[in-house]
């Protein structure tokens, strides 16, 4: 591995700011996830025509609640671990766990978006009518939960990029001399 003292000095100057940004994002994930969880779990509406609709009637919303709880717990633990240096000193642990949680957030957002779409538009091919005409308040709270879930995902996406940068920044890019480049062109 090559070392470049100029690059290393500039990296050290950026490190505290990046760590602060990382910790701030992790702490932002906690209230966003808890808000998503709360809005979803308290979401219910009664209709005289169709009866009571609760989040627990829809499997996808249960999944969103599970992922939101997982992300809130993980973000809190990760924020503490990133502040207390000796708890987790390997950037690979954050890299892998941030990637896993970011992928779970992708699935959570996609499930919530699909439910939201079906609630407003229905699926006439399979005889599902739209539900938001009868359950307007339920749909508006579901929309709020979806927006909060998307914001949480955006935070997790940035955290995944930061942790990847930290994990791979210890390695220098491969060196390619000009003879190898010329040989590959020919």
TrEMBL record:
Record domain Casparian strip membrane protein: where: 19-155
InterPro entries: CASP/CASPL, CASP_dom
TM regions (residue ranges): 61-88, 100-119, 144-162
Localisation: Cell membrane
Membrane-related topology note: Multi-pass membrane protein
A cellular component annotation (GO) from this entry: plasma membrane
Keyword Membrane found: yes
Domain of life: Eukaryota
Cell membrane is among the record's keywords: yes
Keywords assigned: Cell membrane, Membrane, Transmembrane, Transmembrane helix
Pfam families: CASP_dom
Primary location class: membrane
Quaternary data: Homodimer and heterodimers.
Similarity-based family: Belongs to the Casparian strip membrane proteins (CASP) family.
Protein name: CASP-like protein
UniProt organism field: Crotalaria pallida
């Amino acid at each position: 591995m090559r070392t470049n003292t100029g690059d290393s000095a500039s990296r050290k100057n950026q490190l505290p700011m990046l760590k602060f940004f990382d910790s701030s994002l992790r702490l932002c994930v906690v209230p966003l996830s808890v808000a998503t969880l709360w809005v979803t779990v308290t979401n219910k509406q009664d209709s005289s025509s169709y009866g009571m609709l609760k989040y627990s009637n829809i499997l996808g919303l249960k999944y969103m609640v599970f992922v939101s709880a997982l992300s809130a717990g993980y973000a809190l633990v990760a924020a503490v671990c990133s502040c207390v240096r000796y708890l987790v000193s390997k950037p690979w642990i954050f890299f892998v766990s941030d990637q896993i949680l970011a992928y779970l957030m992708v699935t959570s957002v996609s499930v919530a978006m699909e439910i939201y779409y079906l609630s407003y538009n229905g699926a006439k091919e399979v005889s599902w009518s739209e539900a938001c005409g009868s359950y307007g308040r339920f749909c508006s709270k579901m929309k709020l939960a979806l927006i909060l879930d998307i914001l949480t995902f955006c935070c997790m996406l940035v955290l995944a990029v930061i942790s990847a940068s930290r994990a791979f920044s210890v390695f220098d890019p491969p060196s390619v001399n000009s003879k190898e480049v010329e040989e590959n062109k020919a």
